[in-house]
Amino acid sequence: MRHPNLLVLCLLGAGLLAGCQQGLSREEADRAVAEAQAVDQSNLTDIMLTVADPMEAVNYFKNALAVTPDNLDLKRGLARSQSRAGLYAEATATLGEILALPEANDDDRLALADVLIRSNEWDKAAATLNAIPPTVETYERYRLEAMVADSKKDWKKADSFYSVAVGLTNKPQSILNNWGFSKLTRGDGPGAEKLFLQALTYDSKMFTAKNNLVMARALQRKYDLPVITMTQDERAKLLYTAGLAAVKQGDPTTGKRLLQEAVDTAPTYFEEAARSLAALEGQ
Known about the structure:
This protein has 283 residues and is mainly alpha-helical. It has helices spanning 2-22, 26-50, 54-67, 72-84, 88-99, 106-118, 122-130, 139-151, 155-167, 173-185, 189-202, 207-219, 232-248, 252-265, 271-282.
């Protein structure tokens, strides 16, 4: 956390040096320093909202708000960090404070709907989305609408919202995975399989989609692994998923074979697979 402060000092030194060389006024020098500090805070905020540990980010925004309690961007950063950290009640409270301000906007309402969904408060999430004008047609809006429709088992609406959301982003792998999982819960194995494969065309390393793909194929009693890119460790885990699915489908012999393959394939000891295999053999 010392690097951003070091950046400010460097920029400050460079600014003052330039001022000495070019006759920069004190007012102009102060403005340059303020701009450098603003850039530094913006960069640090971006780091906190993306790659930083969620709880570290929460503490950062709390400390920053203690100095400038009326900074709306910092409040939004706190709410987002609280959500990342799984502190949904706290995030809901922070967003409530934001929405009470005249500067609040529909993005803040979407953020609240997202947190409410994460905390399984589906009715409140639906009410929050309904309060947003229909003219707000963003990826985030349709992504959340699709999930709420899913919760109500309104498959027609869910499919419509998922389809629109996919068209509103150039990185649709996450929404395609969600859509595929929706199809999977409905028992639509072929439909789910197609969507998981599509998600992997955008991100071939997305293990969640790979695992879901194996489950979708198992639902159709297709237990062989799909032809996709995978590491040896991933192959073992996918065989394990296929084995458990086979047992659940009433194919214990196939399940036993797949679990044994998982144990044999794993680059290190695969405790879960070995335990499941032992239980199946004992049964």
